[in-house]
Write a structure and sequence with these properties.
CATH architecture of the largest domain: Alpha-Beta Barrel
Low-confidence stretches: 1-14
CATH superfamily of the largest domain: Glycosidases
CATH topology of the largest domain: TIM Barrel
Radius of gyration: 26 Å
Number of helices: 18
Largest sheet: 10 strands, mixed
Number of domains: 4
Length: about 675
């Protein structure tokens, strides 16, 4: 039976947040029912318009196999609907109840060395487990049937943070599933042998039945096997999500679905998953002790926005204050929660939510901050939350507007998985550190930047930045080459274009598929020792330092922009530039210092005629633009501690400052935010 007071779909739509959705993860099962009335009253006071609910409720709604009890959750949904709060309803499958692993211990995951992981935390399931999926989809069917027409239901939240704790499983059921996956991918065992280069070390397989996951081995497991297992593991998690989505689509075809990514996470391909989501959602927890946390956030936010090709997205989780899971968990200083929340909106979010609504009294996350802290409403955190909720509610016209960019940075999960395998020239290459080293100068220069997979259409960009695209498919190499030939500008960093989709080296000299467009070949890799540095002599006579990596570059048409000034490669190119077709391709054969990378990026941007949103911005001030039917908005965010003076190109009005007049100049305090418009 569905709740007796459920109403039709058009009534549910009346609860849809009119502007930027604001709220948090609501877990009423942690509290006695008399607290629930206070919850909805405080939500109204704080401007909450949406909550996620039910994420960890499986054991409460199905305390025994097949014995469902939704009565208490009906009251939760009715309370929220009565308060005008929309619900992003979780499928409750993120953490199985104890009875499931007791009755079916085969659902429990195993590590690469054969150790079983037990209940007591969360996500204690093997992604390939058919038993887990059967019970999960049964629960989802009951949920969807019960709440399909409930007035509070606005969106489905499938699972939660897939892969956070068990991204891979090496158990026998996973092994069987891996073999099925390989059979579908390769068709026959001969093709797999060719793809995996099994002639090396006598690894030739006679049947798929001989293949195992890359379990603990005496020495390096087959790299192509490791790469395929990373792909398979990502796909196994996705199939869990899609099994639930299929049920939801069948019963509630008009209700959008999402699931929350864990930042930019190695084990879950955001681009591959986002294609199956109606709205992209992400969790990101800034670190108050990291002075560059806003840059890391910017990268994650740009990935999330770009994953759905610029559509508005959801910040599903952040912390209003401290988290509980770092070694040192500092609170967000006054104003930073507001600043970092507005940063998400400035980079395309239409929803800002938190984990969680009310701070837990017990459990592993009791010291994780919440919108309503242990100290209640007479606290700095709640006052800041309430003020921000009201501020978001005052500017509903921002929702639905979008950002555009002339620059793009390429990120590929297949290459990431392959780059960080063992038995390489260096195992010190870290894809995220390298990507951020290329993203940071664009962010600091105020250049709007999308982050895209290598198979994305690049024709709308003037500049494409490619950090360490180690694995490069031939069609993607042709796409990059054509981009430059047609007049685009390309910046490529070292150890790119080295292997194909099966981790086999492209023959013909490194980087074979990019030699023509870059106008060079790499004769040898010269990775540097730990803490070793080299001089780099630039064309203007300045000398900077480089570390991590170097390469013996042989120009084949490219000109030298900077050369190594010390070490065995002294006098050889460190940075090159090549005119190709109507465009230009740059290559960086080492890791430059942040200052040198910024100078190079600035030069590349000038050549590409790619400029910032606003010129002359003070240090630490971020500027972005969102535009659409609701208007044209310029966001200014001061990530510094000191006030910043900004000169505007024309008189603009800060829509967050009620009664403000248009002005040519604006002063932003430390952690200050302004949303400007000419209307």
């Amino acid at each position: 039976m569905r709740p007796s007071d459920a109403v039709a779909t058009d009534a549910r739509r009346r609860l849809r947040p009119a502007g930027i959705a604001f709220g948090g993860d609501y877990n009423p099962e942690q509290w006695p029912e008399e607290v629930w009335a206070e919850d909805v009253a405080l939500m109204k006071e704080a401007g909450v318009s949406m909550v996620t609910a039910g994420i960890f409720s499986w054991a409460e709604v199905e305390p025994r196999p097949g014995a469902f009890d939704f009565a208490w959750f009906d009251r939760v949904m009715d309370n929220l609907a009565g308060a005008g709060v929309a619900v992003c309803l979780a499928t409750m499958t993120a953490s199985p109840p104890p009875w499931l692993s007791r009755l079916h211990p085969e659902i429990l995951p195993e590590t690469a060395d054969g150790r079983r992981m037990w209940p007591g935390g969360r996500q204690h399931y093997c992604p390939s487990s058919r038993v887990y999926r059967e019970h999960a989809t049964r629960l989802v069917e009951r949920l969807a049937d019960r709440y399909a027409d409930h007035p509070a239901l606005e969106m489905w939240h499938i699972g939660n943070e897939y892969g956070c704790h068990t991204p891979m499983c090496w158990c026998d059921e996973s092994a069987a599933d891996f073999r099925r996956w390989l059979s579908e991918r390769y068709g026959d065992i001969g093709t797999l042998n060719e793809a995996w280069s099994t002639a090396f070390w006598a690894q030739r397989y006679d049947t798929f039945g001989e293949v195992l996951p890359p379990r603990l081995a005496p020495t390096f497991p087959n790299p192509a096997q490791q790469l395929d297992f990373a792909r398979f593991s990502d796909d196994a998690l996705l199939r869990c999500c899609l099994a639930e989505k299929e049920v939801l689509r069948r019963i509630t075809p008009d209700v959008p679905v999402t699931t929350n990514f864990i930042g930019v996470y190695k084990h879950v391909d955001t681009f591959g998953w986002a294609a199956h989501q109606d709205v992209a959602s992400v969790d990101f927890y800034q670190d108050p002790y990291d002075q560059d946390t806003h840059i890391s956030a910017g990268f994650v936010f740009d990935v999330t926005r770009s994953a759905r090709e610029g559509r508005p997205w959801m910040l599903m989780e952040q912390a209003p204050g401290a988290v509980n899971w770092r070694e040192r968990n500092g609170p967000k200083p006054p104003g930073r929660m507001r600043l970092w929340s507005w940063q998400a909106v400035a980079q395309g979010a239409d929803a800002v939510l938190y984990f969680q609504w009310r701070q837990s009294r017990g459990g592993a996350e009791k010291y994780h901050s919440a919108m309503v802290p242990h100290g209640g409403t007479d606290t700095r955190v709640f006052r800041e939350v309430r003020a921000l909720g009201r501020e978001f509610a005052s500017v509903p016209q921002i929702a639905g507007t979008r950002s555009t960019a002339e620059a793009a940075l390429v990120l590929d999960w297949n290459s990431w998985w392959a780059l960080e395998l063992d038995s390489h020239p260096s195992t010190a290459l870290d894809q995220m550190k390298i990507a951020l080293a290329h993203y940071r100068p664009l962010f600091e220069a105020g250049i709007a930047c999308d982050v895209v997979p290598p198979d994305r259409d690049l024709s709308g960009y003037r500049l494409v930045v490619v950090p360490n695209l180690y694995l490069l498919k031939e069609p993607d190499a042709e796409r990059l080459t054509a981009f430059v030939r047609r007049g685009g500008h390309l910046l490529v960093s070292f150890f790119s274009g080295i292997v194909d989709d099966c981790d086999r080296v492209h023959l013909g000299g490194y980087p074979a598929p990019l030699r023509e467009v870059l106008g060079l070949r790499i004769e040898e890799f010269w990775p540097l020792a730990e803490k070793e540095t080299l001089d780099v002599r630039h064309a203007d006579g300045t000398i900077s330092r480089a570390d991590l990596w170097s390469e013996a570059v042989v120009p084949e048409g490219a000109g030298t922009v900077a050369e190594f000034g010390s070490g065995p490669l002294a006098g050889q190119p460190a940075v090159t530039r090549h005119s190709f077709g109507s465009g230009t391709a740059w290559y960086v054969a080492t890791r430059l210092t942040p200052e040198a990378m910024r100078a190079l990026t600035d030069e590349v941007c000038r050549t590409a005629d790619v400029g910032p949103v606003l010129t002359g911005l003070p240090e630490h001030v971020q500027a972005t633009v969102r535009a659409g039917d609701g208007g044209h908005f310029v966001f200014l965010l001061n990530h510094g501690q000191e006030p910043a003076e900004i000169t505007l190109p024309e008189p603009m009005t800060d829509v967050l400052a009620q009664g403000a007049a248009p002005a040519h100049r604006i002063t932003l305090p430390g952690a200050g935010v302004a949303v400007l418009t000419t209307r």
